[in-house]
Amino acid sequence: MYQELQRFGRVKTNEPLAKHTTFKIGGPADFFVVAEDKNNLVALLRWLDGEGAAYFILGGGSNLLVRDEGYRGVVINLKNAMCEVNGALVTAGAGCATVEVARQSIQAGLTGFEWGVGVPGTIGGAVRGNAGAMGGETGESVSAVEVYRSGEVVSVPGSECGFRYRESVFKRNHDVILSATLALEKSENKEGMRKALENLQYRTKTQPQGYASTGCIFKNVEISQLSPEIKNKIETMYPEDADIRRFFTLGKLSAGWLIEASGMKGARAGAAAVSERHGNFVVNLGAATAADVLSLIERTKEKVYTKFGIAIEEEIQII
Ligand SMILES: Cc1cc2nc3c(=O)[nH]c(=O)nc-3n(C[C@H](O)[C@H](O)[C@H](O)COP(=O)(O)OP(=O)(O)OC[C@H]3O[C@@H](n4cnc5c(N)ncnc54)[C@H](O)[C@@H]3O)c2cc1C
Question: Which residues catalyse the reaction (predicted)?
């Protein structure tokens, strides 16, 4: 296997995935291949499919919790990082950092993706999870996504990507995203730079600094999905609460708020803790294990359910 894989990129064996996740958590992958080039990546995927081998696509590892046992199979780390601006279209390889896509679009005088300056990880990961911030979402700008699907390279129009809040068809199928094209708008002023700076300042103020994490653990809760009884219960529990009024106006109940209101801020398991600064972040205090984080996740879900009757769902991928 090792020798065959070398035909497609740099290969490591028994590679600790903690080295490749922003959480700095995760056991070893049997094989770890760095794919820097689209053609090699497609050839590798075809070969692995032909062999019936298990594989996992790793972007920036910023939305992942890898279990302590690691991954039995081939982890493919996407590093195809090209990014091209053509008029108001920006096309980036799936392995290009989302921050870099945002930077290049702002530099080219385009508007619509400024919020991307604060989102870690790759554009492939952002498309799959419909990443978003400051009211913007990746899916709003995607005009087409090039994917590897059952041996073929296929272009999927943005309208067929099934984007919803932190969702896309790519979370439900086996497509590997190879590149994405964003359709942005020309902007005559310097608003882009200002918006990007505001976004970064806001994040520094509200998110924990100096600890490894994987961003928000849970999705916010769509208020339209709540039963009338639960909505009433929350409104009765917090009649004067300005946050609650804002959430109801925006249509999403903040998972961080629910976690804080359930008394979980600061809760610890081993070397993992629910951040004191942002209830939806779990921070790695040093040598946290995936087991520590998983036990905090379970406790948090239980507490929120007991207090509000709401089953919060993970935003992160757990492998
Ligand atoms: C400090 C911090 C702040 C964050 N803030 C935000 C935020 O504001 N908004 C937000 O939405 N997210 C945020 N996140 C989460 C994360 O940055 C995003 O979800 C990001 O888009 C994940 O991209 P990635 O490349 O790191 O994906 P990874 O973590 O590498 O992978 C996540 C999942 O996507 C799959 N995947 C990755 N690339 C591909 C591909 N090319 N084809 C098919 N599947 C693929 C993987 O297999 C995995 O299942 C934050 C994370 C951190 C650490």
Answer: 166, 216, 315
